[in-house]
Amino acid sequence: MALEIKQGLRLSQQLVMTPQLQQAIKLLQLNRMELMEVVNQELVENPVLEEMGEVPDGEPGSEGDNTTEDGGLNAEGQQQRDEESFGEQKPAEEQIASPTEQTDDMNWENYIEDYNSSSMTAPSMKESLDDLPSFENALTKTSTLEEHLMWQLSMTNLTEEEKHFGELVIGNLSDEGYFNGNFEDICRESGLEVEDAEEVLKMIQNFDPVGVGSRDLRECLMLQAKFLQPRQELVEKIISEHLPDLEKKNYNGIAKTLGVGLPAVIEATKVIMEFEPKPGRNFVTGDTHYITPDIYVYKVADEYVISLNEDGLPKLRISPYYKSVLQNAKADPTKSQKDTKDYVQEKLRSAVWLIRSIHNRQKTIYKVTDAIVKRQRDFFDKGVQMLKPMILKDVANDIGMHESTISRVTTNKYVHTPVGIFELKYFFNSSIQSSDGTESLASEAVKDKLRQLVAKEDPKNPLSDQKIVELLSKDNIDIARRTVAKYRDMLGILSSSKRKKVL
To answer: Are residues 333 and 354 in the same domain?
Structure first.
């Protein structure tokens, strides 16, 4: 069969992920601190971009230019800019679609003037100095578990090989203080016999904190039990022989097997409860992680006001200097000036696109938050029990965007409200149907009810999952036992057998 080559035309439409589109999508999902890093990096790399400072009279920002004193757009000017720059009721990809190819004859002067007055949007929210970490918090330095143990190891009278083995052991400790290395491999590397290495390991296990270097929980607790004065044989027997029963709080079974009374088992259990199951816990760095909200929601009279937090974000504009550079390049047709013109135009496109993308990001966050506030008004008024079921599609339909855009905007973004600071994703919940079918509750509201029930239970007789189902049913909440168990795990609540307190 003969091969034949043919030519044909075919018309198709497809979405092309240009670098500009990829950048816009990336900016959309960044949190406030990450956005600051990107903007500062762009300021370093793109000479056309500059941070807006004082605006002299006659420049953008003066009277009659729809700008504020700090160079940012006022409400009227911002709304007009948003309507001009970003189409309404479009999918996410269309909202941040790539600009058309620019020709060499494009009027960049008007384009520069159009964006020189643009800041990030909305008034900035100033943080009180009382909300910042203390000076001591910023300067203090605590020793790590490794440093603490290495110091103790250096105080011992060991040979070089034994110290080397000890260093290897300390280097193979988990954050909780357990030894998780390969004992035989470390012995070979240090050149120690197994018997000698065991002695060094026992020495390290008796360092402060006691129990560090243990290979499992039983060994950790036994090491601490041996430090009791006087030694308590029942405590050591329970740890060595009945740790699984102790975890299940099977005190009667322990008493029966050991042939002792229940009160004695309970007293021994109280002693074991005082031991530290994670000896390295106190040395884990506990630096406080501060959440900076991306947006604020205030209640003014009977209405909620939304304000973007742009405190610390550089206000960008295009440098007026490059306007004159571009004019000179147009006037001079030489090759060197053409190269200059091409370079400046490329950087101008990049700068303008960045500013537009940031405006789009800020506007989208505002619109999503506004839709959330309107749908969850009862939550802001009365608390978590009034949280309504809401999915991404609900907000997407409200503001005319795609669900994927809503997902990006709400990820790792925080809102400061009169009832606390929440991630925007917190307000999206699946629904739990009421028993009579008249209304549905948000899953977070059900979790809060579950948490309250457990908090009020009798510690000596904790509520089982089935009992919680029955109690929720009395509140007109129809929920399965397996769902209660799932929510309990999500809240970090142990099962009823493990929540039971010692009598």
So the answer is: yes
